[in-house]
Amino acid sequence: MYTERFIHAADTREAVGGKAANLIKLTKWGMPVPDGFVIGRDSFLHFVEVNELDLQSENIQNEITQASIPEEVLTELTSAFLELREKYTALAVRSSSGAEDLEQASFAGQYETYLNVRTVEEFLSRVKGCWASCFENRVQQYTETIEEQVDTLNMGVVVQGLIHSDVSGVIFSQDPVTSNTDHILINASYGLGEAVVSGIVTPDTFVVKRDGRKIEKIIGSKELKIIAGATGTEEMETTKLERDAYCLNDAMISQLVELTLKVERHYQHPVDLEFGIQDQQVYLLQARPITTVTKAAQSIPEARKGFILERKDEDEFWFLMDSRFPDPISPLFASIVTQPFYQGMAKASGELKEPMGFTQMKVHNGYYYGKQIQFEMDPEQLFMENEKLMEDLYPELTNGMYDIVYDHLMPIYRHLDEETSKPFTPAKAKRGLEELAVFFEEVYYWHFIIVLPHASLNIKLEKLFQRLLGSEPAHDLYQSLTGIMNKSLESDRLLWQLSMKVRKEPQLLHAIMNSDEGNVSKALSTFGKGKDFLDRVGKFVKEYGYRCLKAHDFMGETWIENHEHVLEIIKNLIENGHDFDKEFESAVTARIRIHQNFLTAIEDPIEREVFEKCYQMTLDAAVITDDHHFYIDAMFDAKARLYLLQVGELLIQLGVLDDAEDIWFLYKDEIISILDAPGSLMDTVKERKRQYDLQGKIKTPAFFGKPTEEEQSFVEMVFGSLEENKENTANTIKGISASAGVCEGKVKVISGMHEASTFKKGDILVCKSTTPVWTSFFQDARAIIADTGGMLSHSAIIAREYRIPAVLGTKIGTERLKDGDHVIVDGNTGTVTIIEA
């Protein structure tokens, strides 16, 4: 027999393939599996024999699709198809390899799936398509990584009734990101499951304890759904109502958890399930071992123990550093930067006699956690020595910063530029990876030599303000430190000047304003003035373009790589009519007025002089926040990125990767090892990308362990609140009052500069945090609501420069607020009121 119904078929992988074997098992266990049959190995082998096909032929795929199915096989296939079609309006046809869903490799997504198959002709064509897919290049590459040979992959085909899913998704019976055995993870969205499996939508995520108690719900954007059309499948946009609602209710989640545990008990190991729900009935569409959880649960490699948070660490107080690193970080950034970062901090803190010590850092769930380490010295003695050191540094903080930049950092950057431009070999790449770690420690040593005294000076001014004026530092104090040109504002002004030039040139204006996003350069390159303008943009980018779109990582593209980012900002400046000089002049006027009010309010001339001296030092140092970011946090990361991309190109040549950008998903020790013995890591990258996406959706703990009152007080002073404000209600969100003013409007939630085109003038910006490359957002935003940040964060400083209200450190703004929500932002009290959700 060439076909066998699930209920009668043998569940042997060799005869029917992995996917079919699992569906047969589920059917015989009484699980809710759509009825179907399997086309076994014998059908394929007979087909090959009759058509005298050479499986080693370079054109084998085409030969399979063109060959005729033998009459005896054809008759049986047609009969089985028509019998099943009487029960279902359409069928699904999926390949099922003998190597598929193995415990050492899932082969997930490596073979073909055809949905909404309705006719005999289409069915027979799809069967041959499944057979041919065994010989796809991507499958052959994948088999090589697990030491399987193509000619041993016994190809079966699964034919099932198609479930017209209202909702579908995947379930992991053990959290694949955290390896937490007590958590079940569900991803779900509307329509057929291909949208979730292929990753073309952002699904809802549910993390559920095994007892069914929900511990986390994260709504996805669920941009579209795949449905069965008249022929094949169709993509359809979801409605706003569907996007704003969770696609699964509590009762359905409980039912899915119960079914998952039942399946896991039969398999006796963690499972990965695909499901569909039609008319409130749950169907299982696939089951496989969770191949990655086993790997994740293994002990951490020795090379990564220095920066990966271990189970034993969780007994100590480690706090989430989301005010500095709000997004998940890539494996490569974690493995190159983490230890040098805090080692550089420790060295600088030691030299400056920092009373609070330094922060050790480790990674959990892709996020940075910190633990405060204090020096083993008498605290009083440390404080006295620190205070004396700081007093000597305060008058020359800005000059000192620039001396460090030009004397110590620029030579490193020039060296990196030179090395990036030279040919790469495995030996050079390995040497460069080790050298980068050394450079990062040195760069971050100087980083903290700059920023620690600056932070200390700000605290000194705040305390002086409170003593002399009798109140907590208000917005006016921080507003009195604006209107000073820094690298961010300098960059903004030059971009504005470029936009002014475009406004005066009709040909430039027409080319830029009528070009689609990403095609502005192409339009300008077709005429003389356009080429001249591109040259001017190129000169700007050469000096100001070393900044990644994603802060504190190597992943975000830089302006120097793609000038379109700058051209889009210029286009936005033209559209919004922003006048930089007018706005800056207003900020300067406001600063002078506020400062004069302070002096008038201090009656004692001696005290006034003390305040004035401290204020002028702080004002002079106000550029440090943005300028150190420009020269260190942004520039060094960008130059390191460009160097590492060349290592990525080398890995492509060696057959390790197929995209240089995939290098971010490898650890440093993996790259060094693979350079010695090249082999494909494409499957590792694919899995890491999926984990990275999940990390961005799952809410990681605010802290581990139990802090003392002193520890909690210090962390909240420096890094912001550990948890959301307890005064929050269903309609209010409390945060830090970072920039004064009150406004009302609709919110737009933004995750990065790649979403700049969706942000419109007058929107209220809701984000995790901001970086200096978010220029166009600040010019257009009516107000800012951020999950992280404090009074001296970049978000606060730039909000005050642009004189728009800002409520920061909400912890939950991006979670609670959705696009279009109508809110009032009160920057005076740090309150967001939701008028209409």
TrEMBL record:
Query: Which terms does the record give in the GO molecular function aspect?
Result: ATP binding; kinase activity
Top-level taxon: Bacteria
Q: Where is the PEP-utilising enzyme mobile domain?
A: 759-830
| InterPro entries in alphabetical order | ATP_grasp_subdomain_1 (IPR013815), PEP-util_enz_mobile_dom (IPR008279), PEP_Utilizing_Enz (IPR051549), Phosphohistidine_dom_sf (IPR036637), PPDK_AMP/ATP-bd (IPR002192)
Question: What Pfam families does its record include?
Answer: PEP-utilizers, PPDK_N
Q: Which parts of the sequence belong to the Pyruvate phosphate dikinase AMP/ATP-binding domain?
A: 14-300
Q: Tell me the PANTHER family matching this sequence.
A: PHOSPHOENOLPYRUVATE SYNTHASE-RELATED, PPDK_N DOMAIN-CONTAINING PROTEIN
- Tell me what this protein is called: Phosphotransferase
Q: State the organism named in the record.
A: Peribacillus muralis
